[in-house]
Specification:
By secondary structure, the chain is an alpha+beta fold. The protein is built from 9 helices and 3 strands, in the order H-H-H-H-H-H-E-E-H-E-H-H. The relative contact order is 0.10.
Amino acid sequence: MNGGADALPDYEMLEMVLFAAIPRGDLKPLAKDLLARFGSFAEVISAPRERLLEVKGVGKAVIAQLKVVEAAALRLSKTKLLGRPALSSWSALLDYVTAAMARTAHEEFRVLFLDRKNALIADEVQGQGTVDHTPVYPREIVKRALELSASAVILVHNYPLPYPSSRSITGHNSSSVKNR
């Protein structure tokens, strides 16, 4: 409690989450198996249900608990951004967009609608696609911006990868952007 968010290693944090789904027994082996399979706490809670079921010891209760934690993390990120200046808090914006989109298995085109003070009015997925295609219609974005009386929009598109990385959101590293 006194150490903050980084006080526990991923496997201990995962054990605590799993305890709500499986209240008896040693959960360290399952937590370590999940981390070995997916790589990190964030990757475990955002893993697709089908892939989670491939891990021995994971059932519907475990999946439900992991998805509750994922939803809570996304809501927390969104709450930190809603009603606050989005453009003056670039890191909060990137954290939220990463939480919302980095681990999706399909492409998404998301629009963040801002008011005249650059505070977030709404965050909406305008298009979902397959692994390599997402249809987007500019007229629908403009129509929705007018409905919300938005003064500005931030357009966000992800590039899903088999194993998400820091490039999942931008699709480019900083050196390639500078060279363009």
